[in-house]
Amino acid sequence: MCRGFRDACRKPLQVVWAILAICLIAGGHARAQAPAPAASRTVNVGLYVSPPFVTAQEGGSYSGMAIDLWDAAAVRLNLATHYVTYPTFRDLVEAMRKGDIDAAVTNLTITSERAEVVSFTQPWFDAGLRIMVPDRGAGGFWSVVTGLGNAGHLRAYAWLLFVILAATLGLTVFDRRFDPDFPKRWREGFAESFYQVIATAMTGRMSRSKNLFGWMGRIWSAIWMVCGIAVIAYITSSVTSVMTAVSISQGINSLADLPDRTVGVFTGSVAENYVTGLGIASRPYPDIDVAVAAMKAGEVDAIVGDAPILEYYAHGHPEQKVAVVGNIFHPDKYGFAFPHDSDLARPVTLQILDLHEDGTIAKLRLKYFGSSP
Known about the structure:
Elements: H1 2-33, E1 41-47, E2 55-56, E3 62-63, H2 65-76, E4 79-85, H3 89-98, E5 103-105, H4 112-115, E6 119-120, E7 125-134, H5 141-150, H6 153-178, H7 186-203, H8 214-249, E8 262-266, H9 270-277, E9 281-285, H10 288-296, E10 302-306, H11 307-316, E11 322-334, E12 337-338, H12 345-357, H13 360-369
Parallel strand pairs: 1-4, 1-5, 8-9, 8-10
Antiparallel strand pairs: 2-3, 6-12, 7-10, 7-11
Helix pairs in contact: 2-12, 5-8, 6-7, 7-8
């Protein structure tokens, strides 16, 4: 009887345990099959391509410090992003003003003028302006040689050297035949003639007093002296002009050197407004590649732009032979921008503050610039 009672008690317990096991398995399967929560909102984000903050990748994707920072904030706020690019800073801000986009993400400088039409987040990068110039090399002698070559003078010098050697050879043959006192050995005779030719070319005077052909010889000597004076005058003037040009081209080292020069700027940038306010002549270009090409073509003497943009380009494009000179001037800060009535400005600002505090922004700067703030 007792045994039957125990069996009767055990059966309900087995049923209960079986029901619990089925519930746990079903619940786990349901959790495994449940889709991830969808993004709560899709945001249209305007971009201005400006490496290393925004870089266009193959396939229509984008990378860069500003992109990584925005993505980090968007993930925390459960936002999906649709990117739209604009050709200039001015177009990007205008699209924001008109409500065509929900946010502007790039190295957008916070200014009072822009703050009148858009709302900025907490600054996330300290920057400023610097100057980019053509890199002429180490300077000194080799800069002059390069300048002479670019101006075509080295080719003219080569022709002059050919004429001098030909004249030396001709004078050697002539003197060996008609001058009994001329050295008989070829190397000694050639050296003597070479000295005579160079002396005449450099000083404009014949160093030899002997006249083998009377009045005709004197006339020929006078003509050779005139040619020598012309040669030395040409060499002096060409070297002087090239040295002056090199001095001018390498004379841009700071903002104080820009008056009376023409500089390239990026259309709609802070640099454009700043140099215009100083009365410095400028030409706007849509991006740094076009601006550098214009500088190398001689359209502008230098480029004024955001220091991190110029420094990153100069470091990543050594083949362009450009250099960034002088200290940072006109310090400024970057921020993301939103329409004044946007409900995203405050949440994104809070996320930027949090990303500052947890070291994410410092890591991003280290990733793209190799140094922390």
